[in-house]
Write a structure and sequence with these properties.
The chain contains 6 helices and 11 strands. The protein is an alpha+beta fold. Helix 5 crosses helix 6. About 40% of the residues are buried.
């Protein structure tokens, strides 16, 4: 059984190297060639929302919402990168957000959601506290099937991007061509975060403290957000 520390360090959890579909029976690889995405919400997944294990966990208490499958397709997002947010999740990880990265091509995923599935995703994203649900406009989002979108939705951190040397920190697990910032694994970024607090705790105790205590977690988030970097994309419309 995975410990809370191991779970925190495992973010963004397992992400396949291909598009997939998830339903009540689990998940499997998906061929996007003839995929009809009409009447579905295109929501960029730049962190754990790209993981079938994480999506399954979010819907495990609402299996009826997976009667219609969730399609998760590979895509390339120009001029962005997946980076760490300047906050800590209630399960102890430092989660992801997006940042404007001129010239970069981020290999991300897009979740295609029904209205009811989107409502459930909103419930899991702490809208108004940790994330805003936004529409990114004037983008170039190249889907695996050759389709290009100039707008899509995403969850952007309200806390901004974690700062290291006046630049964001990219997620090592999500690949980006032309990456302009240093990348770190979750284990590495948690060590970096601890260094900012000059904590005398051993590393596992440091993580356990903000898992166990909401007050400690909020205090650490406040500290991280003081030097946070803005996402930087000017064509962003907050929906909720």
């Amino acid at each position: 059984m995975t410990s809370p520390i191991e779970h925190a360090q495992a973010y963004p959890f397992h992400i396949p190297d291909h598009s997939y579909v998830i339903d009540q029976d689990g998940w499997k690889e998906f061929d996007t060639a003839n995929f009809d995405n009409h009447n579905l919400h295109a929501v960029i997944a730049s962190g754990s929302n790209a993981s079938p294990d994480r999506l399954a966990a979010k819907f495990q208490d609402h299996p009826e919402l997976l009667k219609y499958p969730i399609y998760v397709t590979q895509a390339v997002l120009d001029d962005f990168d997946a980076v760490y947010s300047a906050h800590i999740s209630n399960y102890g990880s430092i989660p992801a957000t997006l940042a404007h990265a001129p010239g970069a091509k981020a290999q991300i995923f897009v979740t295609w959601l029904t209205n009811d599935q989107l409502e459930r995703m909103h419930e899991t994203e702490a809208l108004g506290t940790n994330y805003d649900y936004v529409r990114l406009k004037n983008i170039t989002l190249e889907l695996e099937n050759g389709q290009t979108l100039n707008k899509a939705h995403a969850y952007l951190s309200r806390w901004g991007c974690l700062n290291r040397g006046e630049t964001p920190i990219a997620l090592m697990e999500l690949k980006t061509h032309g990456r302009i910032w240093q990348s770190m694994s979750q284990s590495e970024v948690l060590v970096y975060a601890q260094s900012l607090f000059k904590s005398d705790l051993d590393h596992h105790s440091f993580i356990q403290k903000h898992i166990d205590s909401e007050a400690i977690r909020k205090g650490r988030i406040a500290r991280l957000s003081l030097s946070a970097i803005e996402h930087g994309w000017p064509h962003t419309e907050i929906i909720s």
